[in-house]
Amino acid sequence: MKTPSLTRPLQRLLFLGVAALALAACASEPASRGAGQPPHHRDGGFQNNYVDFEPKGLFALARWQFSAWRDGLPRAPATPTPLLVPDLGLIQGNGKVRAQMQPMVTWVGHATVLAQFAGINVLTDPMFSDRASPLRFVGPMRKHKPGVLLPELPHIDLVLVSHNHYDHLDDASVRALAAQPGGSPLFVVPLGLKAWLADRGITRAVELDWWQSHRLGSVEVVLTPVQHWSGRGLTDRMRTLWGGYALFSPQLHLFFAGDTGYSKDFADIRDRFADRQSPADGGGFDIALLPIGAYEPRWFMKTQHVNPDEAVRIHRDLGAKASLGIHWGTFSLTDESLDEPPRLLADARKAQGVADAAFFTLALGETRRLPVRRPIMPRTAAR
Question: How many CA atoms lie within 13 A of 209 on its CB side?
Answer without folding.
Answer: 8
